[in-house]
Prior knowledge:
About 45% of the residues lie in helices and about 10% in strands. By secondary structure, the chain is an alpha/beta fold. It has a five-stranded mixed sheet with strand order 1-10-9-7-8, with helices on both faces. α1 packs across α14 (about 385-405), α9 (about 220-235) packs parallel to α14 (about 385-405) and α11 (about 275-290) runs parallel beside α14 (about 385-405). The longest helix is centred in the last third of the chain and has 22 residues, at about 385-405. The structure holds 5-phosphoarabinonic acid. 5-phosphoarabinonic acid (PA5) binds near residues 80 and 143.
Amino acid sequence: MVNIDLKGCNSFVKDADYKAYVEKALTCFDVLEQENGEGNDFLGWKHLPSETPESLIAECEEVRDSWKAKNVDLVIVIGIGGSYLGARCAVEALSHSFASQLKNKNGVPEVVFAGNSLSEEYLAEMMDLAAERNVACVVISKSGTTTEPAVAFRIVKQFIEENYQDAAERIVAITDAKKGALKTLAVQEGYKTFVVPDNVGGRFSVLTPVGLLPIVLAGIDVRSMLAGAKEMELALAKREESNPAVQYAAMRNLLHSEYDKSTEVLVSYNPKFMYLGEWWKQLYGESEGKDGKGIFPASVNFTTDLHSMGQFIQDGARIMFETVLNIEKSNRSVVIGSDEQNLDCLNYLAGQHVEHCNAMAQLGTKLAHIDGGVPQIVISIDRINEFNLGSLFYFFEFACGVSAYLLGVNPFNQPGVEAYKKNMFALLQKPGYEEQGKELRARL
Ligand code: PA5
């Protein structure tokens, strides 16, 4: 379950202002619940937790089992943006930090990601790994036409075809039900396919096969993740001032609109949540950053980044507020030992859990940052696990819808992401872009 604590904002905002923003947020909650706002044809994500059929999970598990029978030990997941970050976030958060280096892999293949950049070096090095391993591939693209995953897939597909007799059985495509180059290719080659629902945008798709299949392949309990998301779906459907999504949307918009906070920094004290920050940045950045509006989403990992970004947050331009992901308990235990000589002067910590030091660092940082003029929202879970990650996914998605409506934008479109693509196609001399190519080259 997710809890929200706004006390770290009390000294910055007037109570009456907050109440007014909660009222506004409740109006936006109504728009989202009644499905009569802009972009309302992209609300398929709202009921995924309660409506995902057991048969879909079973289908994902069939792929997992069929690849296990082939002794596949490397799954390459190809996708970018919303077709990448949710799965990456779950795999990073819920897998052993050193899974690929451990001797005992528990029969779980290593999952690596490709198609999320155009780095030749990355692809070459990934293919070095592929050459040593038993490979299968999941290629994900809702549109089926995105360049980065298409380039990666062409390379991986050719590698699989050259190295395996059963190539078609080692490739699964997740794409539109009917259209797009990937769909055409999948039908022609006879790949197993999963569908990205029409009414779910990329950044809201982690609980569709886009996220579910890679998460299942990584050995993660997806039923528990959906159960956590479902609990959140039911909790957030309540129209009340204590609704945590309403509170979060209200406070972040209040800090932005009335107190000049242009940047929200998502803070985690556990490196396993680094990619939760990446997923969250896409969700909020792409949903809110349009029409000249938006709260710039940034993320840091403490205490690591207290030794780099800490200076700016404490003392630089006062443009930000923090949203801290508070994890109450560690899943593992490491106790600091006593040392007779105490040359490192750490005996005052002897007998303490490392997580206790992390908690004190968190509390100390909270007070220091508040003193330095940085309001703090705290979002808590009791520990990192499938259930709570599912809850967080749904919490942030729902709050994003409310928040973007409050900001006055359509949460579900992304008109800005096309601009670079047109230029890239023109410069790559894609057929149909010749004239733009000439114009652009003249400007360079
Ligand atoms: O949220 C979005 O819509 C984008 O980030 C897309 O997910 C991303 O551009 C990938 O698109 P596609 O799945 O069509 O390849």
